[in-house]
Amino acid sequence: MTKSLLSELVSAKTNSTYEAIINDLQLKHFSCVDHFFKPELINQLRQQLLDKYQQDDLKKAAIGNRTNETIINSIRGDYIQWINHQSKNTIEAAFFNKINQFIEYLNRTCFMGILHREFHYAVYPEGTFYKRHLDSFQSDQRRKLSMVLYLNDHHWSIKNGGELVIYTHQNTTETIIPKPGRLVVFESQLLEHEVKKVNSGKRLSITGWLKTR
Ligand SMILES: O=C(O)CCC(=O)C(=O)O
Ligand SMILES: [Fe+2]
Asked: Where is the Fe2OG dioxygenase domain (predicted)?
């Protein structure tokens, strides 16, 4: 077999973005990448979320798992709507198509055993935040990876607030500005994190979890 054919076959099976995320996860339990989704899809998801928000389709987010929820504004102030992972909406289907490819890759190359995915839209209006927390529940350890995708427009800057702060295992903090199209992936059971107060504007995102059985 010629060398170029062999390298083509290998590159068909490896994906440099997924490899970079996996590498980061092994090194520091989180990863931040900017081009996981095409900019066009980010724009469509942003518009979709804004339309839903304007139509009052989102509801106040609660603390706890989906069967045991309470709303506590002093802990989190965002509004959410869960997204059906089998949605017929072409924009949401394109989003899940990419997520499913990533899951297939994780399961094939890292034997992660991801079986379920749950994602919701989120809007943090001005003045809201989400206090330091861990994404997994003592009663439910199935959440393995947390994924956050930011849908703000390109004007969003540090002045708007709403940074994601990750408390790393090296006892340092990592501050991530929620730039459009930026995707943060981290280990749900390991890393505490918080969303700083939004100073101005509406902070837009999709947050989700990849779960084992
Ligand atoms: O939006 C973010 O940056 C993080 C959201 C979060 O921590 C959560 O929904 O559990
Ligand atoms: Fe979280």
From this structure: 110-212
How many helical (H) and strand (E) elements, i.e. helices and strands, does the chain have?
A: 4, 11
Ligand 1 close to Cβ of residue 135 (< 6 A): yes
Q: How far is the CA of 194 from the centre of ligand 2 (A)?
A: 7
Q: What is the DSSP letter of 39?
A: H
Number of domains in the chain: 1
Is any ligand 1 atom within 6 A of the Cβ of residue 149?
A: no
Residue 49 maps to a domain: yes
Cα distances (Å, whole numbers) of residue 182 to 12, 122, 156: 25, 15, 12
Q: Is residue 25 part of a domain?
A: no
- The pLDDT tens digits of the residues spanning 158-208 come to 999 999 999 998 899 999 999 999 999 999 999 999 999 999 999 999 999
Range of the domain at 139: 31-211
> Is the beta carbon of 130 within 6 A of some atom in ligand 1?
yes
Atom of ligand 1 nearest to the CA of 122: 1
